[in-house]
Amino acid sequence: MRVRISRWGDSLGLRIPKAAADAAGLRDGDLVEVFERDGGLDIERVGDIDIAGMIAAITQENLHRDDGWITAPSVGRER
């Protein structure tokens, strides 16, 4: 299928034909990742974010440490 690239603000966009979207299982609002590969583009659907799974994967080894770093003195309403 041929589609024309169009300007969309400072970016470029393309419309995915209905037949291609249906074949890929894409719906309005789906999140996709675009990769440059071998001089072309690959588009892959990104699954829903599993927050519960991400939280369950937190361990003491990968937990962000709070070393109490203060990079600048508090000012204004942030105190």
What does this structure look like?
- By secondary structure, this protein is an alpha+beta fold.
- It has a single domain, classed as Pemi-like Protein 1, Chain: D, CATH 2.10.260.
- Helices cover 16% and strands 23% of the residues.
- It has two helices and four strands; from the N terminus they run E-E-H-E-E-H.
- It has a two-stranded antiparallel sheet.
- Strand 3 (32-37) and strand 4 form a beta hairpin.
- The mean pLDDT is 87.
Main sheet? 2 strands, antiparallel
Strand arrangement, largest sheet?
1-2
Number of domains: 1
Percent of sequence in beta strands: 15-25%
Q: Give the low-confidence spans.
A: none
Q: What is the helix fraction of residues, given as a range?
A: 10-25%
Gyration radius, rounded? 21 Å
Q: Would you tell me the structural class of the helices and strands? A: alpha+beta
Count every helix, treating DSSP H or I runs of 4 or more residues as helices.
Answer: 2
- Oligomer description: single chain
